[in-house]
Amino acid sequence: MAAAAFIADRMPQSDDRSEAISAVVPRFLARGEVDLAAGLADTVDDPHVRDRLLIAVAAKCAELDDDEYAMQLAEAIEEYGLQSQAREAIALIKAAKGDLGRAREIAAEVLHPDEVLAGIAIKQAESGDEDAATETLATIDYPSSSAAALMAMAAMRLAKDDHLKAAEYLESAASLGLEIEHEEERIRMLTDIGSAFIDAKRGDKAIETFERARVFAEELDN
Questions:
Q1: What share of the chain is helix, strand, coil (3-state, %, to 5)?
Q2: Which residues contact 46 (CB under 8 A, 6 or more apart)?
Q3: Cα diameter, the chain
């Protein structure tokens, strides 16, 4: 590994060098060697490749609970949109680890925090606070994010054989799915929800949801 990093670091700047470093950095991250990974990423001339690598390093730092370093790396990213993606990745990891307060703090610095809020809602439901999860879902603007979170919450209920509650979540998800503006995304979401209704033993709702997806698909073809 050290030899690979040595070679990649000393290759002349080129697409091949960027590819070599892009291949080496994930291996360092898998071993938790974030300093070496960040150092290598920072040597890449292509700003987009560099920023993408730094997002991966920042996310690993968040996994290791080194939030300060993670945020420093996010701030070092040049492209503002990718900088926001780094913060989103960090916030999602914090939410998954149950640090919801920190996740919300970071989400405030994200351009479009809906995915983070969805992650927070899922964690709240997982910990049994479904009222809080519902309140969090109400703050999400993008219907696809809310629908995906509700599907995750339904899956949790299905794992406990609570088909009734799972179906309730899926009905809410289906309503939100209809609000998705992008046609192909709306069709995919409704198809996924229809499949989930089958798991919830609600064949009637599955047929209804699949039919809606079919109608949208036909309209898209025309």
A1: 80, 0, 20
A2: 15, 18
A3: 63
Instruction: Give CA angle at 191 (186, 192), nearest 5°.
Output: 100
Provide the pLDDT for residue 6.
47
**Which domains occur in the chain, in start order?**
1-131 (1.25.40), 142-222 (1.25.40.10)
Three-state DSSP state, 46: coil
Identity of residue 109: E
Buried b (16+ CB within 10 A) or exposed e, 155-171: bbbbeeeeeebbbbbbb
Could you tell me the CA-to-CA distances from 57 to 25, 42, 175, 206, 210 in Å, in that order? Answer: 8, 11, 38, 41, 41
Residues in contact with 139: Cβ distance below 8 Å, sequence separation at least 6, in sequence order: 117
Rounded Cα distance between 35 and 41, Å, is: 10
Count other C-beta atoms under 10 Å from residue 62's C-beta.
Answer: 29
Residue found under tokens 């629908």: 147
pLDDT in tens, 22-64: 999 999 999 999 999 999 999 998 999 999 999 999 999 999 9
The dihedral region occupied by 13, where left means phi > 0, alpha psi between -120 and 50, and beta the remainder, is: beta
